[in-house]
Amino acid sequence: MSAIRTATLADWAQIHPFWQRIVADGETYAYPEDLTSEQARTLWYDGSDRRDTAVVVLEEDGRVLGSAKMGPNRPARGSHIGTASFMVDEAARGRGVGRRLGEHVVAWHRELGFAGIQFSAVVETNTGAVRLWQRLGFEIVGTVPGAFDSRRHGRVGLHVMYLDLTPES
Amino acid sequence: MSAIRTATLADWAQIHPFWQRIVADGETYAYPEDLTSEQARTLWYDGSDRRDTAVVVLEEDGRVLGSAKMGPNRPARGSHIGTASFMVDEAARGRGVGRRLGEHVVAWHRELGFAGIQFSAVVETNTGAVRLWQRLGFEIVGTVPGAFDSRRHGRVGLHVMYLDLTPES
Lengths: 169, 169
Known about the structure:
Chain A is of the alpha+beta class. Chain A has helices at 12-25, 37-44, 97-112, 127-135; strands at residues 2-6, 54-60, 63-72, 81-88, 116-123, 139-150, 154-164.
């Protein structure tokens, strides 16, 4: 059985290996590639216990297959819009882990009353992610040309994607 | 005479009053409004002496009229794109302070070899700023609807604006 639950600090030992491989792979995230495990964890778990942020894992039989973090995209006058980041163990690809984490993130934002969700930097060549977010209702608001230096594709665009969660939508 | 120069820590005593008024005015920045002076300074001067970041002031006869901060928009695989933020004392509006700081920021990025400059959150009702960036060559890449909770206008869009600085452009 698999389930999505709040991440504990103990989960980092399972998250970190795939987190690090995904960053080092150079196709999806503009995170520093030379972080210690502790620095990377601090980036993923921001250390707060604020009600408006969360980090979850999708776990199957004690094995963590993916993780997502979520919370306000900006403070104060921008805090009604959420954002999220996702890491899925490449060994568990094609099994709907990203989709389930994405659905969880959308439901979490909806329950907390966020007005929308913004992804600020979806790499345009990461077509699996782009299609997944589109299936969840996200639209491409715009693309910053060449803003991501992909290891394999060179400079490619970063999509800003947005899902409206206001009641009338 | 007025000139743009690197900001010193001593300049904060002059920057902070208008910085704070601009944030409290609630029309241009999604910064927290309850920061201490020290917290706000840390947000503006990130404390690093990295060659790829800078904070400047425009000073006239010993008086600081405005300030700009600039540097990479993202780390690592996004660090070839810069970004900047601007604060101009409202008592000095209409005198070209924002324009001169903007021109300085563009020249600084060009000299350091950045491929472009991204402004991620230009409030759409801040039409003076939008027009100024357009005059400097920035284009609106997209607009996240309702992403800024303006004190006077309610929820308004945040423009993502971009200026290409690659040699062929």
